[in-house]
Amino acid sequence: MVVGAVIKWFASPGATPTGLTWDGKTLWHCDLTTDRIYQINPITGAVIKWFASPGAIPRGLTWDGKTLWHCDSIADRIYQLETH
Q1: Of 43, 56, 50, 63, which Cα lies nearest the Cα of 13?
Q2: Residue 12: inside a domain
Q3: Rounded Cα distance, 43 and 54, in Å
Q4: If 0-12 CB within 10 Å is exposed, 13-18 middle and 19+ buried, where does residue 81 land?
């Protein structure tokens, strides 16, 4: 395998993806255009669920094992988010 070779891809549910993280089972993705945070099936690329970003300009996501952490570049805030 070539380092950096694309293994798989699917379309982003939003037009401007700005963050991505893995929770051990699914992908989480935030999008600047829709101001949403999406949970995505990594096999099919299908959106499992979504919710509105708490800030106007969503950027960056990470998973701590229980919750998502998310930042917003307009409000200059970092949010801890429940996912269920």
Answers
A1: 50
A2: no
A3: 28
A4: middle
What 8-state DSSP symbol labels residue 39? E
Q: CA of 27: how far to CAs of 3, 40, 76, in Å?
A: 22, 5, 24
If one counts the domains in the chain, the total is 1
Give the Cα separation of 30 and 69 in Å (integer).
11
Q: What pTM was estimated for this model as a whole?
A: 0.92
Which residue range(s) make up the domain with 70? Answer: 17-78
Assign 38 a pLDDT band (cuts: 50, 70, 90). Answer: very high
Q: What is the pLDDT of residue 47?
A: 98
Q: Is residue 32 part of a domain?
A: yes
Residue 50 maps to which CATH number?
2.40.10
Amino acid 75: pLDDT? 87
